[in-house]
Design brief:
Layout (H helix, E strand, L loop, with lengths): L7 H6 L7 E4 L3 E5 L9 E5 L11 H22 L3 E5 L15 E6 L14 H15 L1
Antiparallel strand pairs: 1-2, 2-3, 3-5, 4-5
Helix pairs in contact: 2-3
Length: 138
């Protein structure tokens, strides 16, 4: 399977679609998920094209996981959550919906389940969580 340069994350990287950015470096971008499964759900992607972990270079994977760890620590600190799930899917049968490598960073609170996928979040609430995560990254 080939990389589709018109996927939603490629469009975010090109500035064609807005995003609530949390962190950016030369190799990666972290931003809020607009369909959050948990409060503060965010995503980490490489800035270079790759479909998923199966076709990513070792350098892309290393950069993305390093940023995912940095963001996860900020989520723990900024949101005061009990834990963090890192999720990454490879191909549609495994649950991948956007075919650009990405890690989900899902803040978790004891006794609070994830919401079902596919429901648009409240943008004001998402922005509030983003502010707290960015402050923890600073």
């Amino acid at each position: 399977m080939s990389y589709d340069s018109d996927n939603v994350f490629a469009k975010i990287l090109r500035g064609e679609i807005p995003s609530n950015k949390l962190y950016e470096d030369e190799a990666t971008l972290a931003f809020m998920d607009i369909m959050p499964r948990t409060d503060g759900h965010c995503l980490v992607i490489p800035k270079t094209p790759c479909r998923n972990a199966l076709d990513a270079t070792p350098e892309q994977l290393a950069a993305v996981i390093a940023t995912a760890q940095k963001v996860a620590k900020a989520v723990m600190k900024g949101l005061g959550v009990d834990g963090v799930i890192l999720e990454q899917y490879n191909e549609a049968p495994a649950g991948q919906e956007v075919f650009h490598l990405h890690f989900h960073v899902l803040p978790m609170r004891e006794g609070v389940a994830m919401r079902p996928p596919g429901k648009m979040g409240d943008f004001a609430e998402i922005a509030g969580y983003a502010d707290r995560i960015r402050a923890a990254l600073a």
